[in-house]
Amino acid sequence: MRTLDVSKIPKPNFDFERFKVWRNQNTKFFIEIGCGVGRHPIQWAKNNPECQILAIERTSDKFEKFERRLTSHRTKFPTQYQNIWAAHAEAAVLLPHLKLSPLVDGIFYFYPNPEAKAKNRQLAESPLLPFLFEILKPGGRLLVASNVASYIDGLARVAIAIGFKPSVATQISSVGSPRTHFEKKYLERGDACFEIEMIKPQ
């Protein structure tokens, strides 16, 4: 399967120099793709202060809400949330230019649109998936959640072909502390939600 070719991808509008200064090479590093309004990465950053997370959202309205939420948290707690970098970008455009291979400990991809029609929007059909395999460290994990069981099953089949070792998909049963607004909505209305962890072999 083809992967992303940085030579064919225009460099996005992104502060690469400041990101390089922020990124601590001695710290575990995680990425969230499609983080929406930031519910999960902000909570995760609080619970994992010893790690860093790059949270990426491509849509302008959601990213603006994410930025406002993050700014509010940093204002209330100035010594916290410095371990999160918010990026308004398309993951498949930004990530190849960051030259992370293989430096990533884990990747989160929660509730992608299962009916996306645009080319390369479906992760199982996109060159982004083998690229994510490349940038993960051996033992690194890609965690995907969806309320569509067939999406998880299809992704697992492709991931195995790439080299991932997927876990058995599990159903998310608790509504107590949902990670995203979508997860909260789906669980509250009684939808079945599933997650699968795909590991890059050591």
Which structural traits does this protein have?
202 residues, Rossmann fold, 7 helices, 23% strand, globular
Structural class call reads alpha/beta
Name the shape in a single word. Answer: globular
Number of helical segments with 4 or more residues: 7
Q: In the CATH hierarchy, what is the superfamily?
A: Vaccinia Virus protein VP39
Radius of gyration, in Å, reads 16 Å
CATH topology: Rossmann fold
Characterize the largest beta sheet: strand count, sense, and whether it forms a barrel: 8 strands, mixed
Distance between the termini: 21 Å
Please state roughly what percent of the residues sit in beta strands, choosing from under 5%, 5-15%, 15-25%, 25-35%, 35-45% or over 45%.
15-25%
Give the uncertain stretches in residue-range form.
none
List the helices and strands and how they pair.
Layout: H1 16-22, E1 29-33, H2 39-47, E2 52-57, H3 60-76, E3 84-88, H4 91-98, E4 104-110, H5 128-135, E5 136-146, H6 149-162, E6 165-166, E7 170-172, H7 181-188, E8 193-199
Parallel strand pairs: 1-2, 1-4, 2-3, 4-5
Antiparallel strand pairs: 5-8, 6-8, 7-8
How would you sum up this structure, described in words?
Strands 1, 2, 3, 4, 5, 6, 7 and 8 form an eight-stranded mixed β-sheet that branches. Helix content is 35%, strand content 23%. It has helices at 16-22, 39-47, 60-76, 91-98, 128-135, 149-162, 181-188; strands at 29-33, 52-57, 84-88, 104-110, 136-146, 165-166, 170-172, 193-199. The chain has 202 residues and is an alpha/beta fold. The two termini are 21 Å apart. The chain has one domain: Vaccinia Virus protein VP39 (Rossmann fold). It has seven helices and eight strands, in the order H-E-H-E-H-E-H-E-H-E-H-E-E-H-E. Helix 5 links the parallel strand 4 (104-110) and strand 5. The mean pLDDT is 92. The protein is globular, with a radius of gyration of 16 Å.
